[in-house]
Each structure stands twice: as C-alpha cells, then as structure tokens.
C-alpha cells in the first residue's frame, strides 16, 4: 500500500464525523461492483440526500396535505415554516434566532437585500459596489437594483473593495467564498471597512453556509442571503434565506412587500403595513413541499458532535490531503491549485487547473 493510501486509512479511522455518512443516501459498495461506487464530492452544487427526507416528504404530502388539507397551515405549522426553519439555519451561520426567514430563490433574496440596503443607507449615497467576480446572477440583479434605485454600479474585485468605498457608497454586495476559485474572503475585515465608510453590506453565503463558520452576529453583518441546496442539503431548488440584522429590522424596507410580510396578513387590507422582525422579508405563499424537505434535511445537524467547527476541520483536512496527493502524483509544474493553500483563504473545496505547457 502506498504511503498516501495508508495515511488516508489512518485519517478515516480517526474521523469523528465518519458516522454521519450513514445519515445520507450514498453509494455503499455493498450492492455494486467496487468500481461502480461513486464518491460524491458535489456538495457545492447539490448536497446529497439526507436519509430522513423521503419519509418526511411522504408524510407532508399524504397526511398533511392529503388528510389534514387546509388545516395544515395551522396544525402542521406550514404558515410559520419560513421563520421556524430560518431559526434552524441561524446557529449554522452564527446568528441568534429571529433574524432569518426562508423562502424564494437566492436571486430574489439578493434583490430584496440589495434594494433594502440602498434604502437603509439613505439620502446622498448613490453607488452600489459589487464583487465583479461574483456568480453571474448576483451581478445581473445588482445591475437592475442599481437602475431601479438611481445608483451607479461599481464592479470591483474583492481586493479593490476597501479602495472603492467612500461617502457616496450606499451598499456593497460581496461573496463569502468565490464560487469558482473557492477563495474565502475576509468577512470581518470587509464588513468593518464597509461600516467605516457608512455603507450597508450584503453578504452572499451560498458557498460558505453549512461548510464553515460565518459569524454573522459577531461581525455585525447587516444583511445576508444564501441558498440551501448546496452545503445545507435541502434538495434541488430548495428555498433560500434572508438574514436581516435585528437592529435594522424596523427600518428594513423590502422592495417586494407581499401579503406574507404584512403585519396582519389575513386582514386583507388595501394598505401595506410591514410585520415586525425577520418576517418582514417574506413575500408570498411559501413553497411548503421544498421547505419542509429542507427542514428534515437540517436534522443531520442535530447529532452529537456535528458542529460547523467539526465540519470545517474535516473539510480542511480533506483538501490538505487532496493537495498533497496532487503534489505527489502530478509532475511538478503541470497542475496548479487555483484555491489558496492558506486555510484562512480557503473555502470548502480545492480546485486545480492544468497548466498548458510553455511554448
Ligand atoms: C448557487 C448560487 C446562486 C444561485 O442562485 P439561485 O437563485 O438559487 O439560482 C447565487 N449566488 C451564488 C453566489 C451562488 O453560489
């Protein structure tokens, strides 16, 4: 056995999270030929299926919908699911309860957060700074949010953000982890820089929530959004979430004030009056089937020792080991790691690029 294979076995034997694997539907090898067993590494795109989800979805459809029907809005807790599930995500991103609401897609939540941020920033500030290397949807939405709010959009690289801030900056939209390179950005320092300029920061957590500690409350983040189908295993198209810091909630003015965020949704009033709290981020009727699949998926975090710290430690150990394998198997200079080697700058995966031979 090679030295690296022996090392891998040793790491596996000492892995505190090894037991968590049984909570997911994954290839086991028992009923496949050994060479057909897949090792699933795509948690950054579609998290694997937690074993408890199919049974829950069946119950939601057959009993809650099929038998209780409309009573389930109350009796099965459908109506309050967006806030309740938000409170389950909260500890994973370092937020106290009452600040996260689940619903809509990440794209829609970027829109709510960014327009809301410009409105919070107030008069005299007419620039939106956006991460130019962002996932395209964030950039498209930022461009439209800028046009709607009469702002100028300034796309810059995250390294250029501090230099781009000034007394005209209204809002800044940043990614915690770059979706292509896996680079982890310095959320505490960038948040502090945005605040020092008097502006409002919006963080996109799609590639960090569920993979590494975020510390939203600790670092004073204003607004944040993220998806739940990547590292939170919510399933294809599961709803995203919006975080609004408690101290900003009374002033948060959503650009999509639907009846679900009304202070009295069943009052059916002609005039809009926003609800208090995170609920203010809701829009219309929640997508209950997806949302309750997500709620069941989040139960994998309930087990002993499944903390975000433990997941981060394992993720770094895996990518460290992967980089050592690349070093030892690939001829020097042929492949380079696009993802920074330093733990402080590395998200939850490592990406390598093949260098084209020099001519
Ligand atoms: C995955 C991802 C999205 C996806 O947006 P949807 O509206 O859920 O399709 C948005 N932004 C970032 C940074 C992402 O990684």
Q: What would you say this structure looks like, in words?
A:
There is one protein chain. The protein is an alpha/beta fold and 359 residues long. 31% of the residues lie in helices and 12% in strands. The chain contains 10 helices and 11 strands. A 7-stranded mixed β-sheet has the order 3-9-8-7-6-4-5, with helices on both faces. Strands 1-2 form a two-stranded antiparallel sheet. The longest helix has 22 residues, at 308-329. The chain is flat and about 75 Å long. The protein starts with a helix and ends in a 5-residue tail after the last strand. Residues 105-107, 135, 137-138, 175, 179, 204, 206-207, 227, 240 line the site of pyridoxal-5'-phosphate. Pyridoxal-5'-phosphate is lined by residues 105-107, 135, 137-138, 175, 179, 204, 206-207, 227, 240.
Quick structural overview:
The chain has ten helices and eleven strands.
Throw out a few tags for this protein.
359 residues, alpha/beta, two-stranded antiparallel ribbon, flat, binds pyridoxal-5'-phosphate
